[in-house]
Amino acid sequence: MVYISRKEFFNAAHKLYNPAWTKEENEECFGPCANEYFHGHNFELTVTVVGTPNPMTGFVIDLKKLGHLMKTLIIDKIDHRNLNMDVDFLKGKMTSCENLVKEFWDILALPISTNSTGKLYKITLQETHKNYVEYFGE
Ligand code: NI
């Protein structure tokens, strides 16, 4: 099996804020991430596909095609947006990296299966130089 990855980039604003809690409770849990007027990150999104190379092309997935799927299905909907307010598939959800990768997985898994010899293996979302999450679909 071969693991192949594509990285794309986006900038977005968000805040971590649970509306069921008081302002003080939110600040205690989320610190400056609960800032009322939001804050931004330069995110790096890496999608990894696993499979056996197609003997005709040598590809598990055409990386141009994977980049196109990531861009049209995800990046175009979140880049330069407010994740809490502008994005349909995040409405009413906490915009943590943990939740973001799960939503991205649900969007990408099927189109990747139909456009590759394998399947989606991992989604990695780097939020800062120090912090990133990985999701393997379960
Ligand atoms: Ni943040």
In words, what does this structure look like?
The protein has about 140 residues and is α+β, with helices and mostly antiparallel strands. The protein has a single domain, classed as Tetrahydropterin Synthase, Chain A (2-Layer Sandwich), CATH 3.30.479.10. It is built from 3 helices and 5 strands. It has a 5-stranded mixed sheet. A hairpin with a 5-residue loop joins strand 4 and strand 5. The two termini are about 20 Å apart. The mean pLDDT is about 95. The site of nickel (II) ion has 4 residues, from strand 2.
Tell me the CATH topology. Tetrahydropterin Synthase, Chain A
- Percent in helix: 25-40%
Count every beta strand, where a strand is a DSSP E run of 2 or more residues: 5
Radius of gyration: 17 Å
CATH class: Alpha Beta
Structural class label: alpha+beta
Give the arrangement of secondary structure elements.
Blueprint: E1 2-14, H1 23-30, E2 39-51, H2 63-78, E3 81-82, H3 97-114, E4 119-126, E5 132-135
Nickel (II) ion is lined by residues 14, 33, 39, 41.
